[in-house]
Amino acid sequence: MASTIVGKSGSVYIQGEVLQQSFVFKRVPRPFFELSLRLADDNQDEGILIYPYFKDTLLALIKKEPDLSLAGRKKILRCVGEAIQEFHSKNWIQIGVKPDNILVNWSCDEAGKTTIGDVALGSFDIAFKSEHGEPRETPHAIGNAMWRSPEGQTGRGVTKASDIFSFGLVLDLLLLSGDEYQQITQRGISPEQEILTRHFSYFGPAAEGLLRQVGSPDWCDALKEASAMAELAAKEQPERRFEHWGPQVPRCRT
Fold first, then answer.
1. Phi-psi domain of 56 (left: phi exceeds 0; alpha: psi -120 through 50; beta: other)
2. Which of 119, 159, 247, 251 could form a disulfide with 79 if both were Cys (CB 3.0 to 4.6 A apart)?
3. Residue 120 CB contacts under 8 Å (≥ 6 apart), including other chains
4. What pLDDT, in 10s, does the model give residues 17-31?
5. In the CATH hierarchy, which fold is given to the domain comprising 56-244?
């Protein structure tokens, strides 16, 4: 492979270290494919796609920098929130809002201080265009169980609000428990049950609107059960409720 690559745009790229080489076949919605062609470059002869590189995912960064400053965490949350807002303004539901789909550039100075640079929301393979505000209905839940909204756990009635609930779980990772999938399963807890309980603990009991949206009697019973468990947890730890959060966010664990 040549040390320099000329993209279709005419730009010349200098090859550095090869971090990963793989063949990728992934279905993405047509608008995102067309957008990628505008944001990226390619060289058909060399079989290379050239695109902006981010140093880490949020999940990898938190593992490397568990003591990342509050200011850095807030910047990441703000950038992700703005990305979701832009996405929703075009009537798209991302569905995959989770730490390993959040891309982060960061640097570390000689004193060991980490500074957050650019942040982007990525991975749109299960995104959904809601032309007239209709929810997404699937025969089963899609996406990672750790980051689904309550209705996302059922696969029924997924809307823009579902992304906000998933965003709340990212906030949980950055500011609250910091628990990961492996830690939950090691405690013998179903991830779906744990995440439902957290949703209702933080943001209040299962609303009638949620139950109507889901519709399924079996799923409604499961949501009511998780909601009741969350109510008991909130009585023991009132600070779990979102309305009690302040400048010093409590670090709650189940």
1. beta
2. 119
3. 54, 79, 83, 102, 103
4. 555 555 555 566 666
5. Transferase(Phosphotransferase); domain 1 (1.10.510)
